[in-house]
Amino acid sequence: MSPIHLAIVGVGKIARDQHLPSIAKNPDFKLVAAASRHGTVDGIDNFKSIDEMLEKVPAIQAVSLCMPPQNRYEAAHKALSAGKHVFMEKPPGATLSEVADLEALADAKGLSLFASWHSRYAPAVEAAKAFLDSTIIRSMKVVWKEDVRHWHPNQEWIWQAGGLGVFDPGINALSIVTHILPRPVFITKATLEFPENRDAPIAAGITFTDAHGLDLTAEFDWRQTGKQSWDIVAATDDGEMVLSEGGAKLSIDGVLKHEEPEQEYPMLYKRFAEIVQAGKSDVDLAPLRHVADAFMLGRRKFVDAFYD
Ligand code: NAP
């Protein structure tokens, strides 16, 4: 098959770090254009807006949307309306309803919509899922703590309404948890800590359960300096499972079971090619739904102002 002619929208950190190198190595795609107000990509046609790009490059068959979530709906709607398949960075939107609307539009037009969750493609995630499917889970603890100044320097959108604050990384943990657990969970309690000068939380503590009374807690914090923590620990009838380093490494009772170099974005593009070729969409809203529930149910606590 000839490669899918692809365009990138929003040439920022993740587009440069992950999308461009992954697309370059995948023969299923040919990057033909980019749209970004400031960023550009060498060797292809660059435009300041998605409207101009879609008008001037009719050969585009699919677009990857790498801008912040607050601007994703408008771009996705334009691309789908113009007959293009759409790959959306995580989180897929600023609200659940707008993503449902896009899913319906993609369906009506016979196009593929991909709500990507890169952390689900971390190397040890499938092994963790298989282990949890084979045992009884007694409790699970998620600790996702990182230094926002290191990972998000000068990114204002993460602190604005709809930018999700600490849930921007926290939703990665939720995308893993919702994939590896055998049954759906739901939030029973949450506390969200908002810096007094910001519209999005810097930390969150969440308690979940399921129909069988599972004890599941999650701690998200953006104030961690030094060692960063991206760990999911489960007490099970067959030992303690530790899925660490954001899903890269799996140990059971201290014995390393799985560790490989990460290939998250190459795997995402492999999946996107698969769904385009199969004529279907891949949109799982469970991680975003939990974030919405945390905002709906969570107590709000104001903490010290945050400055970059
Ligand atoms: P970023 O560095 O701020 O880049 C996003 C780009 O989108 C900007 O450079 C900007 O390019 C464009 N954009 C369009 N409208 C914008 C607006 N209103 N405000 C700011 N930028 C706007 O952000 P990023 O880190 O790449 O994150 C983008 C998405 O990828 C987010 O949903 C994030 O959760 C996800 N993601 C990020 C990472 C990471 O490590 N950073 C990892 C995985 C996923 P122009 O100014 O040229 O238009």
Explained architecture:
With 308 residues, the protein is α/β, with parallel strands linked by helices. The chain folds into 2 domains: 4-115, 3-Layer(aba) Sandwich (Rossmann fold), CATH 3.40.50.720; 119-262 and 292-303, Dihydrodipicolinate Reductase, domain 2 (2-Layer Sandwich). The chain is 31% helix and 29% strand. It is built from 9 helices and 15 strands. The chain has helices spanning 13-24, 50-56, 72-81, 96-109, 125-133, 148-151, 167-180, 264-278, 286-297; strands spanning 4-9, 29-35, 45-47, 62-65, 85-88, 113-115, 137-145, 186-195, 203-209, 215-221, 229-236, 239-244, 249-252, 255-259, 299-303. The protein has a 9-stranded mixed β-sheet. Helix 3 (72-81) packs parallel to helix 4 and helix 7 (167-180) packs across helix 9 (286-297). The model has no long low-confidence stretch (mean pLDDT 98). Bound molecules: NADP nicotinamide-adenine-dinucleotide phosphate (NAP). Residues 10-14, 36-39, 66-69, 71, 89-90, 118, 155, 157, 168 line the site of NADP nicotinamide-adenine-dinucleotide phosphate. The site of NADP nicotinamide-adenine-dinucleotide phosphate has 20 residues, from helix 1.
H/E element sequence: EHEEHEHEHEHEHHEEEEEEEHHE
Strand content: 25-35%
**According to CATH, what is the topology of the largest domain?**
Dihydrodipicolinate Reductase, domain 2
- Count every beta strand, where a strand is a DSSP E run of 2 or more residues: 15
Distinct helical segment count = 9
Compute the number of structural domains.
2
Trace the largest sheet across and list its strands: 14-13-12-11-7-10-9-8-15
Give the second-level CATH assignment, the architecture of the largest domain: 2-Layer Sandwich
Instruction: Label the structural class.
Output: alpha/beta
What is the residue-averaged pLDDT?
98
State the share of residues found in helices, binned by percent: 25-40%
What is the CATH class name of the largest domain? Alpha Beta
How would you characterize the largest beta sheet? Answer: 9 strands, mixed
CATH superfamily of the largest domain: Dihydrodipicolinate Reductase, domain 2
Bound molecules: NADP nicotinamide-adenine-dinucleotide phosphate
